[in-house]
Amino acid sequence: QVQLVESGGGLVQPGGSLRLSCAASGIVFGIFPVAWYRQPPGKQREFVARISGGSNTNYEDSVKGRFTISRDNGKNAVYLQMNSLKPEDTGVYYCKIDSDWGKGTLVTVSS
User: Which of 29, 55, 83, 100 has the smallest count of CB within 10 Å of its CB?
Assistant: First the structure.
């Protein structure tokens, strides 16, 4: 059974940084692409970033240059480094591998 557990969310001021982590178990982690999604308050879930098994990356336009996705296959983990955070980055951030989702971690950007 695949388990994905996100962590690292919290309250941060605009311009600040956070690093999210996603720990995976029950899956041959290294061969799968992994994606981060977020769901802003009152809105639908949206794509944020993706990293392939070979560590190729792509990003949603609004986070390019501010967010960096990376992975450590030895630790079955994926990270999302978020810099220069804006209030519109607020939401619950989810990790996704194949058809499995984690429960999410809340990021709030507010002064």
Answer: 55
The whole-angstrom separation of Cα 51 and Cα 56 is 5
Question: Can you give the C-alpha Rg of the chain in angstroms?
Answer: 13
C-alpha to C-alpha distance for 25 and 5, rounded to whole angstroms? 9
Helix (H, G, I), strand (E, B) or coil at 103: coil
CA 43-18-39 angle, to 5 degrees, is: 10
pLDDT of residue 55: 87
Cα separation, 25 vs 60, in Å, equals 26
For 36-87, the pLDDT digits (tens) are 999 999 999 999 999 998 889 999 999 999 999 999 999 999 999 999 999 9
For 5-23, the pLDDT digits (tens) are 999 999 999 999 999 999 9
* Number of CB atoms found within 10 A of residue 79's CB: 19
